């Protein structure tokens, strides 16, 4: 098994294991189009995890909560690749990435509903930067942004990974004096982040896909009413994500 940024790629054997059928059955489904797949230059068929999970659901099979799925993802090496990326156990991170892929939010055009939320977040907290972020395997992509020119960063540099690991509002008052972030290129260089506050965004199953966050180039603290407003805006963003499930 290998991975893309957001939706793992499985071999025919991986798919057969997760679907609980013979490899030959999966090959038939692939050839008929029931399971979308493609061939590598070497002639081997590959399929994305999200397509396998969709077919499992159509067949009434258990989803990602089934321990067999967790065990197979871990044994095939996929889980180990994600351990620690967001501070989440491998099974939970596999579920999260599958949910992100199923949401079809990554790499989509700007939408006013999310753009409005980042403008409001920046306004109510008086921060020059605000983002709606989505965390894939290797990168953090910005669904909406204000005060930031770039559209993504490596996930390894992401403050938002820490927010997802915390599972709640995550605040860094002064990144330059915090040993977790002092050497981060996003702190030592553009956009020179010193302050961060992020609230996780969840889908209808409670899986954390990203954050609504605000940032500043100066150390600071948010007042309780500002934190409360940020959480309320994050709830609206989560509700919009859930509405699309």
Q: How far from one another are the termini?
A: 27 Å
Assign the CATH superfamily of the largest domain.
GAF domain
- Mean pLDDT over the residues: 83
Overall number of strands:
9
Strand content: 15-25%
Total domains: 2
Which shape, going by the Cα principal axes? elongated
CATH C-level category of the largest domain: Alpha Beta
> What is the overall number of helices?
10
Architecture of the largest domain in CATH?
A: 2-Layer Sandwich
Structural class: alpha+beta
> What's the story with the biggest beta sheet?
6 strands, antiparallel
Low-confidence stretches are: 1-5, 62-86
Helix content: 40-55%
**Helix and strand pattern:** EHHEEHHHHHEEEHEHEEH
Strand order of the largest sheet: 6-5-4-9-8-7
Oligomeric status: single chain
The CATH topology of the largest domain comes to Beta-Lactamase
Question: Which value, in Å, is the CA radius of gyration?
Answer: 19 Å
Quick structural gist:
Helix content is 41%, strand content 19%.
């Amino acid at each position: 098994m290998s991975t893309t940024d957001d939706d793992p790629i499985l071999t025919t054997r991986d798919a057969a294991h997760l679907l609980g059928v013979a490899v030959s059955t999966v090959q038939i489904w692939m050839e008929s189009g029931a399971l979308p797949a493609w061939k590598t230059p070497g002639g081997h068929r590959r399929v994305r995890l999200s397509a396998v999970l969709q077919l499992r659901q159509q067949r009434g099979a258990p989803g990602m909560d089934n321990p067999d799925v967790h065990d197979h993802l871990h044994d095939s090496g996929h889980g180990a690749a994600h351990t620690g990326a967001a501070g989440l156990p491998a099974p939970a991170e596999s579920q999260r990435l599958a949910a992100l892929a199923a949401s079809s939010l990554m790499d989509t055009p700007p939408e006013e509903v999310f753009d409005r939320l980042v403008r409001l977040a920046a306004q109510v907290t008086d921060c020059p930067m605000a983002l709606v972020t989505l965390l894939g395997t290797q990168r953090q992509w910005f669904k909406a942004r204000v005060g930031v020119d770039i559209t993504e960063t490596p996930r390894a540099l992401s403050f938002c990974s820490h927010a997802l690991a915390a599972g709640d509002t995550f605040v860094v008052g002064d990144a330059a004096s915090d040993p977790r972030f002092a050497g981060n290129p996003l702190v030592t260089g553009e956009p020179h982040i010193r302050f961060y506050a992020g609230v996780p965004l969840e889908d209808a199953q409670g899986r954390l896909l990203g954050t609504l966050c605000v940032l500043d180039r100066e150390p600071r603290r948010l007042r309780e009413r500002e934190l409360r407003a940020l959480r309320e805006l994050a709830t609206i963003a989560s509700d919009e994500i859930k509405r699309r499930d």
